[in-house]
């Protein structure tokens, strides 16, 4: 559960997002890595979710975008980029092609209030 970003600075009411996710991992080794990094993963998820605005999450496309962003963010925590690999990449990868131990993020509950 997080406070969502406000639409404007003078907006009176706070809005909240309560979300539950399931993370699909590539193998048992990834599961161990995931569990070992849980505090960093939770922090990354909270920071990402609290930066979102309610209007951006109401549509199916918005939820799909958020799931991909969560997948990418968790993969970044689990596999920090190799500086040499980053320099040699052409930058053509998009979030659907990203690699890492997280295969998908699935929402099991999604409430905006």
Provide an overview of this structure:
It contains five helices and three strands. The model is unreliable at 88-96 (pLDDT under 50). Strands 1-2-3 form a three-stranded antiparallel sheet. With 113 residues, the chain is α+β, with helices and mostly antiparallel strands.
Summarize the structure.
By secondary structure, the protein is of the alpha+beta class. Helices cover 45% and strands 20% of the residues.
Question: In terms of topology, how is this protein built?
Answer:
Elements: E1 2-3, E2 16-25, H1 28-36, H2 38-50, H3 54-57, H4 60-78, H5 83-88, E3 102-112
Antiparallel strand pairs: 1-2, 2-3
Overall mean pLDDT stands at 88
Question: What shape does the CA trace take?
Answer: elongated
Percent helix:
40-55%
What is the topology, as strand order, of the major beta sheet? Answer: 1-2-3
| Straight-line N-to-C gap | 10 Å
Order of helices and strands: EEHHHHHE
Tally of DSSP helical segments: 5
What is the gyration radius calculated from CA atoms? 15 Å
Strand content: 15-25%
Sheet bearing the most strands, described? 3 strands, antiparallel
Structural class: alpha+beta
Low-confidence stretches at least 5 residues in length (pLDDT < 50)?
Answer: 88-96
Number of strands: 3
Offer a few descriptive terms.
single chain, 113 residues, alpha+beta, 45% helix
